[in-house]
Write a structure and sequence with these properties.
Blueprint (H helix, E strand, L loop, with lengths): L1 H10 L3 E6 L11 H10 L5 H12 L4 E5 L2 E6 L1 H10 L4 E6 L2 H7 L3 E4 L9 E5 L3 H4 L2 H13 L4 E2 L3 H8 L11 E4 L2 H10 L4 E9 L1
Parallel strand pairs: 5-9
Antiparallel strand pairs: 1-3, 1-4, 2-3, 6-8, 6-9, 7-8
């Protein structure tokens, strides 16, 4: 158990905070259904109700575990500071990890101070055999998606952009990449063709 949670801490999140919260065990199981019941059963100022509300609002941006009378959260700095401020009287300790250590653990994940071009979370490297496997319609669909949805995607690799536009030469060993904003923006890529993506690199801002 310890090894698993340390992996979450060092592999993704920069901060770990521990709180001793009265009757925290009532938050288990931690499904949204049961947590909502906690917020209606206890007053909104009760620490256990605050914890339940925090988890429901931030489940996608943190990890947590309940251990005896403690609850331990793993998240990035701003979210941990928000939680400490709200539960100051119950806060025990906080630990941090240097982002340089995070970079070494997973070659497909990069921790950074600023996302590429300020907003893109994913760098998608194309399949080397994409040229042979995509139909002309699929190529045109991909080009349209990457160039018309500038909030969600962009191509910075000029060779790839030229080939997708239909104006470039055929490259039988095509390499290159493009950026997409988030996981939701990846879905249309898969829908166009499963032969587009070679590998994906995720950027995490801290």
């Amino acid at each position: 158990m310890r090894k698993h949670h340390n992996k979450l801490f060092f592999g993704k999140y920069t901060h770990k905070a521990t709180f001793v919260v009265p009757v925290i065990n009532v938050c288990y199981p931690t499904s949204t259904y049961y947590l909502h019941k906690i917020t209606t059963k206890f007053s909104k100022d009760a620490p256990v109700a605050k914890v339940a509300k925090f988890i429901m609002n931030n489940r996608a941006n943190c990890k947590f575990r309940i251990q005896n009378n403690k609850i331990i959260f793993y998240a990035h700095k701003n979210l941990i500071l928000e939680l400490i401020t709200d539960l100051w009287d119950y806060w025990c300790n906080v630990s941090t990890v240097d982002i340089t250590n995070l970079k070494l653990l997973d070659e497909s994940t990069v921790v950074c101070k600023r996302l590429p071009l300020g907003k893109f979370e994913y760098q998608v490297h194309v399949n080397r055999n994409m040229v042979e496997k995509l139909t002309t319609d699929q190529r045109d669909q991909l080009y349209a998606y990457l160039t018309r949805n500038t909030d969600n995607a962009t191509i910075t690799n000029q060779n790839l952009k030229q080939w997708l536009s239909g104006k470039g030469a055929i490259h039988y060993d095509l390499t290159g990449y493009f950026y997409v904003r988030n996981e939701k923006a990846l879905l249309p890529i898969y829908m166009i063709s499963e032969n587009i993506i070679g590998k994906i690199r995720k950027f995490i801002k801290v």
